[in-house]
Here is the input.
Amino acid sequence: MKPIWRYLKLTGLMMHNCFVRELQFKANFVVRFFTELMWLVMQFIYIGVMYGQTGEIAGWSKWDMIVLMGTNYVIAQLFEALFYDNCVRLTDQIRQGDLDFNLIKPINTQFLVSLRYTDYASIVNSMVGLGVILFALGKMGLAVSFGGALLFAALVINGVLIYYSILFVLSVWTFWIGRSNNLMELYWQFGQFSRYPGDIYPWILRKLLWTVIPMLVVSNVPAGLLIHKLKLGGIFYAFALGAVFLSFTVWIWKKGLQRYRSASS
Amino acid sequence: MSEAVQTKSAFHKYWVILSTRTQEDMAYRANYVFGAIFRFLPLVTMIFLWWAIYAGRKATGASPLIGGMTYEDMVVYNALMYVARGFSSVPGTMSDISKDVKDGLLNRYLIKPINYLWYQVMYRLAHKLVFWYIALLTFPPIFFLMRRYFTHWPTLWECGAFVISLFIAFSIGMLFCSMIGMLAFWFLEISGFLFVVMMLEFFMSGQLIPLNILPAYLHQVLFFSPFGYEGYWPCVILMGKVPQDQLAQVLLIGFGWVGIFYGLSRLMWSRGLKRYSAVGG
Here is the structure.
């Protein structure tokens, strides 16, 4: 079997396995779905209150902002569906020396630890986010071409992978510092930068958020595509940056593994 | 005489819990430093977001006040929220208590001559001690950098009321989380529900939006809720937004909630223990 098929098949198996697990806890699924929905409603209230005070924020109208919020929601939910739990589990595995069981399996370990568990509630939630985007675009009277939709999808995936790269690097950091249970907080604290338009930030911070901590590339780029606030260069830049970040995870993972002690600290 | 010894030991055992827990947490203080710096990132966004909102108002010639707050007030409110939450948030309390109940881990504590809830209080207090040990190094420089926003110099009354409100903040945060955790006596699986509660708390304590700029029908209710004491009230008290003649009333309602929550949590504990099956599940 060609390697690529082997990986795809394994991804399918792992997702199926999680689906079966999910079916055993249906109530949990429903609660998680509604929790995330409530978060979205709270964001709506927040935007409502903000735009109750002014018609435009840094050149962004209310519906522009909702498209951005929806886009960020889709990206964050997809990230949480595929990678978030796995990153949190990874820190525990490194700390407690439980990584051994993954290391001995005949498959790329980074692939295995990154995609082992899928959270289906978040996948459903990302669909809700898509609904929000479409609704907002409808209100603005903006249409999206087929090519535009494909490009948007690619940029969303790119955003998810950038999120993954950052969180994965932070998880792998456990190899060095021995403990990092602030991961969830960090995700929230960095993630909030991608919820708002980059235009609100002063020059230096904006540059920082476009390069070193590319939270603006994550969702401002795909949202900008939909509401025509994006230059062509931005698209190329986003993909290039995604590739660089993803490569970095592979490198740091290898470096980290060399420090693995296979014992609890 | 034996009575005196007993009284001493009653306090002593909780003191031992507190100091042991503190030492344990101190071992991981690097972890706290890390968190203490990054937790201010959202404040950066808030500073610029509100700047853009106030600038937008200025451009259209609307009043420069939002809910009686200037731009500087809004920034200070968001900054002081970190202080208030430094007292009212007791992360992990809900889930730890519910886990102890659900998995039968409570047995470990029941056989010891300690009150489990006071044990939890000491445990979280130790967290707070280490948190503030670190925060006293990180908060002042950050607030110093933001000094131009602090336009109001609080009076002695406001400072006093602020300190009292922080005590109320910790008490309400601690008691509320304990009560939610104790729901596990009646409902086996509440982890999903915990997120809902935390989110409501986040909103109703004024962390997302200052309560006074919410629509009137909402803020009139939330002004009397216990959750405002976990964030909103300590902030606005120190900012001088509460008239001096209303300070006592605000604090009294807060103490009222502490009393109600204390009574309720005692009741839940005694009722809950009767249902407790002492096995994992």
Summary: The two ends of chain B are 46 Å apart (CA to CA). The interface with chain A takes residues 28, 30-31, 34-35, 38-39, 41-42, 44-45, 48-49, 51-57, 59-60, 62, 66, 189, 191-193, 195-196, 199, 202-203, 208-209, 213-214 of chain B (CB under 8 Å).
